[in-house]
Write a structure and sequence with these properties.
By secondary structure, this protein is an alpha+beta fold. The longest helix is centred in the middle third of the chain and has 41 residues. The mean pLDDT is about 90.
Length: about 675
């Protein structure tokens, strides 16, 4: 029965994608998106104000009971079986209170209104003249009484489940129900791109799973690999056989790959550097090897050269944290096949850390705390024009990432990687407890070939120029509506995790650059006796010069990580993990062995799932700054970035590849 269920599940997934990607499926998606958009009506009265009725009340967040401020409201007469009648409009003040005047005669002849309050969300896009245009949708409805005839009607204090926090989460996460979904939608273009990307890949994986279910020895790993599109390493080796396994390419990936490593430098010899991956603090699963690994490098004539790799393995039964370890063994380029195998072990460690830490935690998980707080609080302040295009869709993709990346049963990281689901959560807690925006800036280049650092610094310069210009243009309104920034900052801090510094380095090495590391000397806020990881942007409803500088710094940090950082890490997943013999999230059977040894590589299902996932996660190509597909990127960012096109091109980087947002 279990085999039959597996086969049927795969077939249903293929059919579902094919239907969604059909003309009929795409048409339904477009109609659904259009249906959610509502028209905001102007309010014109034929009678003097004193002759009108009014509805009053107060709105508060259902999770905190704090006022729901500056949200647009419409009052309607609720009619069963008919569209209803528009009565009036209003907006909540900073106490969450509202007053809406209306003419009850607008409910229709001999119809005493049944009152309904509609909360409207809006999103901003820009027209051809770069003027903002708002699009509205109903975020929530509140039913009042039927047959309201009194001149003043009080809705009372209404609790609204608007962008509410998940109560049982370790981190600031959005609460949503399966019935209601998230309060944010993908754009139609992004949704259709998702169907297009999956439609060609889902049948490949389904065929492999069904074949394996019927015959446990099939398909072979070479057959699995051949079924998927060739990735970067395969293409490189077709052009220059063996290049992807060379020391030159190994160093390039350490500096500029999916996981651009922050190296450590010897305190007494600045030309000696290393990268370390140590997993002693974590529980290992039963299926995969877990190796601590250190790669050593030397700077020679402004060029980084790999000199040695040390591998320290756990015993097969060393599952618990701090279990006994085998003696470390060091390999050098003179060790032939063992050196190639040691590099493969390092690559799997780096790829696993990239997928879990640099991708899921640093981009997806970290940015959700800022996303929720922004959509809860920023409605009038112009900073929303800057942040919303980058923050939208993130909660949607994070709900998906929870399943496909870190779900205990089917997540890529938790099932293909070497750690238990509990250890993955532990690492999420540790990393989130140390991240913050204050004092952060990109690392400096270590050598001539350190393109990632050069590109990151150049992009940081772009963002600095863009944000300075934006603030100069909107300074008056930013200050006028500073109370929203205050509430935004308070929300972030209140829901921030407790601060916990990462362990300091010991021994002969220290970080070569501390720009991206936390600055413990900068004070952190304390809430109810708990020191919070995230620092305050402001603590007042009127900003100081330091507060304005903080907001600029915060915006630069968030935009950097959502755009360039996530683009860099996400879009190299297929490059790094699309060839099962080159890389994977973990190895088996002792880890040392030839690439074509199936006992060392991931098993059949893990192999097809890995290649499938990294291709899907890079195939959806929608939402880029310069393309501006949704017309919501401020012109200042697009023109500033475009002005630097040649400088990026000199570093062999196409700025057209920078994604606007995290929608994959």
């Amino acid at each position: 029965m279990s085999k039959l269920k597996t086969i049927l599940d795969e077939i249903k997934q293929v059919i579902g994608i094919k239907v969604a990607d059909s003309d009929l499926g795409k048409s339904k998606t477009e109609k659904k998106a259009k249906k959610s958009i509502v028209e905001v009506r102007e309010q014109n009265f034929d009678k003097p104000l004193e002759q009108l009725h009014k509805a009053t009340g107060k709105l508060v967040f259902s999770d905190t009971n704090k006022p729901l401020h500056n949200i647009l409201l419409e009052l309607w007469d609720r009619d069963i079986g008919t569209p209803g009648d528009y009565l009036g409009t209003g907006i909540t003040d900073y106490d969450g209170r509202f007053t809406i005047y209306y003419d009850p005669a607008k409910a229709g002849f001999l119809d005493t209104p049944d009152l309904e309050l509609r909360l409207l969300d809006n999103r901003i896009s820009f027209d051809n003249d770069n003027q903002p245009v708002s699009t509205y949708r109903i975020a929530y409805t509140i039913k009042g009484d039927n047959n309201v005839s009194q001149k003043e009607y009080d809705f009372g204090t209404c609790t609204v489940p608007y962008w509410i926090y998940k109560p049982d989460s370790h981190f600031a996460r959005l609460f949503f129900s399966e019935l209601e979904g998230t309060p944010d939608d993908y754009s139609v273009g992004r949704t259709l791109q998702g169907y297009d990307a999956a439609s060609s890949l889902v049948p490949i994986k389904a065929k492999h799973v069904i074949t394996h279910t019927l015959n446990p020895d099939q398909p072979t790993l070479p057959e699995i690999q051949a079924a998927y599109p060739p990735n970067l390493t395969i293409k490189l080796d077709r052009k220059n056989p063996g290049y992807s396994r060379s020391d030159e390419y190994f160093v390039d990936r350490v500096l500029n790959g999916m996981n651009p490593c922050l190296l450590q430098r010897h305190k007494n010899n600045p030309n000696q550097l290393k990268v370390t991956f140590n997993w002693d603090d974590y529980e290992k699963d039963d299926d995969h090897d877990l190796n601590n690994v250190e790669a050593f490098f030397e700077l020679k004539d402004n060029k980084l050269v790999a000199t040695a790799i040390t591998v320290q393995s756990r015993y097969p039964d060393s599952i618990a944290p701090h279990s006994p370890l085998k003696d470390p063994v060091t390999y050098t380029p003179n060790d032939g096949e063992k050196w190639l195998q040691a590099k493969r072990i390092f690559r799997t460690n780096s790829f696993f850390a990239a997928e879990m830490i640099e991708h899921y935690i640093k981009a997806h998980l970290q940015m959700e705390q800022y996303t929720i707080a922004a959509f809860r609080n920023l409605r009038k302040n112009p900073v929303r024009l800057m942040l919303y295009p980058h923050l939208k869709s993130l909660v949607n993709i994070n709900q998906r990432a929870d399943e496909v990346l870190v779900s205990p049963t089917v997540g890529l990281v938790t099932t293909n990687g070497p750690l238990t689901p509990g250890s993955v959560v532990q690492i999420c807690k540790e990393r989130m407890a140390s991240y913050d925006w204050k004092g952060w800036k990109p690392r400096q280049p270590l050598c001539e070939a350190h393109n990632f650092a050069k590109i990151a610094n150049l992009y940081w310069q772009v963002l600095t120029e863009y944000i300075d210009n934006f603030f100069q243009k909107y300074q008056e309104e930013i200050v006028k509506e500073w109370a929203e920034i205050h509430r935004f900052s308070d929300d972030i801090i209140e829901h921030s995790v407790a601060y916990q510094p990462l362990p300091k380095l010991t021994g002969d090495y220290d970080w070569y650059d501390d720009n991206e590391l936390d600055k413990p000397e900068i004070p952190r806020p304390t809430v109810n006796g708990t020191v919070k990881a995230t620092r305050a942007i402001t603590t007042a409803d009127q900003p100081s010069d330091a507060d304005i500088a903080n907001l600029k710094e915060f915006c630069r940090y968030v935009i950097f990580h959502i755009t360039l950082w996530h683009s860099w890490v996400n879009d190299q997943q297929a490059d790094e993990g699309g060839e099962i013999f080159y890389n994977s999230l973990a190895l088996r059977g002792g880890s040392f062995g030839s690439e074509d040894d199936p006992a060392i590589a991931p098993n059949i299902l893990e192999s097809t799932n890995l290649i499938y996932m990294v291709n899907v996660l890079t195939a959806i190509q929608y939402g880029y700054i310069l393309k501006n597909e949704d017309d919501d990127i401020p012109e200042e960012l697009r023109t500033t970035l475009a002005a630097y096109k040649e400088k990026f091109a000199a570093l062999s980087y196409d700025i057209g590849n920078i994604r606007t947002l995290i929608n994959i």
